[in-house]
Amino acid sequence: MAEETGSPAEPQDASETAPTESAPDSKPGGNKRIKALIVLLTVIIVGGWFGLKWFISSRSNIETDNAFIEARIVPVSSKVSGTVARVLVNDNQLVKRGDLLLEIDERDYRLQIEQAAAGVGIAENETGGEQMKVEGARAALQSAKARFDQAVVDQKRAERLYSRDVLPKDQLDRLRTARQVGEAQLKEAEGALKRAQAEAGLATKAGSKAKIRQRKAQLNDAELQLSYTKIYAPREGYITRKSVEAGVNIQAGQPLMALVPLQDAWITANYKERQLTYLKPGQKVEFSVDAYPGKTFNGTVDSIMAGTGAAFSLLPPENASGNYVKVVQRVPVKINIDAHADPERLLRVGMSVIPVVLTGRTSGEVLKELNPFK
Question: Which strands, in side-by-side order, build the sheet including 330-337?
């Protein structure tokens, strides 16, 4: 009986143990699917977060790679002509304001100073001689006036005597003629005095020193021309485009070299017209330079040009003629570089720059643009 009752129990134990053996085979597959789903959701959430962050950043921080360093180029030229005696600077040399750049042979200009100084002495001597002429003309005028007054008195006396039949008619006529001659001589003496005064410079407010001042002005001009033989740096900067050497004969106004003040450089960034919506002067700028990878510089938006670059080009487009194809225009934006930039990393003219304008727009302002019901 014990064997009969025990035999049917064995298959029952086998059926009960079968599911327990197959359960571990199905459980690992379900865990893998759950893990894969979790990983996928994590990737979607992280990717969506970074994508949203990138979208907000691209709308609030305006970037372009069409930007370059610019600076004012100060041409250096001579005000006088002559032969270059010395050149004291080299290409790409940093000079301070007031540094001597070159000298022109000054011997010709010193001769001009000596000639002008001699002219001052001659003018002083001529003025003394002309003063004596004036005094002589004034004495001649007084003599002519005395003779005229005497002729007038003689004529009046003769007329009274003639009225009494004491003086003959011919003698009266001679006295009348003498009066007329005296009057003419008086006028001639007055004219001679005026001419002498004009020659001596007494006829104007300048006085007798007019000629002396004229000669002194010529002397001052000669000294000024001499000072132009030394050319100094008008401001601090780097020497470039040097095209002069010692011994070369130059003309007045000829460009000799150029001075580039890199400390006053700025950035010209050509932004697309659709990027100017929220761009304003005064906004902060962060930019990088290809020459210094990994280094970030700071700046500020200074101004926005009044027109596109194409509008101010040498040959502006004429959109009213022919077929029209819309092209996205670019507007130059001037960006001032922070004065406290790294002095060891010098920003040179023409370097490529990637500026990013920080408009300061919040995430809410950017996402508000996506609202289709606004």
Answer: 61-63, 353-358, 284-289, 292-304, 330-337, 266-272, 67-70
Q: How far apart are CA 87 and CA 85, in angstroms?
A: 7
Question: What are the residues whose beta carbons fall under 8 Å from the beta carbon of 161, sequence distance 6 or more?
Answer: 167
Q: Which residues contact 31 (CB under 8 A, 6 or more apart)?
A: none
pLDDT of residue 40: 85
Supply angle C-alpha 37, 39, 41, rounded to 5.
Answer: 70
CA distance 140 to 266: 78
From the options 3.10.20.340, 2.40.30.170, 3.40.190.10, 3.90.1600.10, give the CATH code of 61-71+262-368.
2.40.30.170
CATH architecture of 74-105+229-259: Beta Barrel (2.40)
What residues does 336 pair with on adjacent strands? 266, 300
Specify the pTM: 0.64
Tokens of 366: 């950017």
H helices present in the chain, as ranges: 2-6, 9-60, 107-163, 169-200, 210-227, 363-368
Give the mean model confidence (pLDDT) for residues 276-289: 91
* pLDDT tens sequence across 160-212: 887 887 778 888 788 888 888 888 888 888 888 888 777 666 544 455 567 77
Distances (CA, A) of 276 to 153, 206, 257, 285, 367: 101, 65, 38, 14, 19
Helices 210-227 & 107-163 angle (0-180, nearest 10): 170
Q: 253 in the Ramachandran plot: left (φ > 0), alpha (ψ -120 to 50) or beta?
A: left
Per-residue pLDDT tens digits for 324-358: 888 889 999 999 999 776 777 889 999 999 999 99
